[in-house]
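Supplementary Methods S3. Complex input for the iron/sulfur cluster-bound model.
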Amino acid sequence: MSEPLLCVEGLRTSFHLEGGVLRAVNDVSFALEPGRVLGIVGESGSGKSVTALSILRLVDPPGRIEGGRIRFRGRDLLDLSEAEMEREIRGDRIGMIFQDPMTSLNPVFPVGVQIAEVVEAHQNATREESRRRAIELLGLVGIPHPEDRFSDYPHHFSGGMRQRVLIAAAIASQPDILIADEPTTALDVTIQAQILGLLGDLQRRFGTAMVLITHDLGVIATMADDVMVMYAGRAVEQGSAQDVFERPRHPYTQGLFDSLIRLDDSPHSELRPIPGNPPVPIDLPPGCSFRPRCRHAMDICGLEVPSLLPGAGRRRVACHLASAQPASPAA
Ligand code: SF4
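Predicted complex, serialized as structure tokens:
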């Protein structure tokens, strides 16, 4: 196994609100290796997006990173100055694609100019070189007639085309890591498939590592090598995507799979949604946050937060049930 490119250890990011402290990311650790795709999956409010924003130190007040380490190529990003983050990390070594392409592009500048600015800022290129590179990138992400489209404004593009423009800007510096936060949520199903196909092609072509954030297990199945399942700000299960899909061990992960429609289901089989709602992670009660929704809950679950314990291979599970049972050799 190669050295992790990104190693997040014990990350804690909180929002200090009038009603209490919202622990959006609570002691989360994971590693990303070169060229691999890590899928982070969970319901809304589970801490997926705040984890991504924390990596790039883009958490706005009243949120703040309160602990942990984010080691990227041997440097802790939490030790860098804001100027170093802006010059050397964001949009340079780590690119980010956000959920809503309309709000991520500046409506008053042509799309080509916005991509050329990224090239100029990070690659020491002249204005003409940046323009040529921007046109090349527009073509690379599948914008037809890129030279003609260079001067068009964001409102001239459809949602899917705007997302392609954002992807072009995110890969302009050939980053080591691409973070994609729900990159297809705002798009219709056909366009979603095209954008995921494009991201997969680019990821393989350039060997870029990717953190892919989604609530959609189907997206994880298509794209991810490894998966981290989040619930109420914590990682509850981690492992290779194949292992987790074949043998989910945490009751929450099992519930996510049980609530899916499968092609091989009989027409009479019923969906089994997870009962209840995820908690808002403010002043959480002691013990496991999933306990009110868990059909396997035991006395200890109300007393102690389960630790994320290693199983075979890459697998880690945070559940008292899993720690009471030996991991199966394949799990
Ligand atoms: Fe359920 Fe207990 Fe495991 Fe939490 S620790 S998921 S309540 S069995």
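The first strand starts at residue 6 and ends at 17. The two ends are 18 Å apart (CA to CA).
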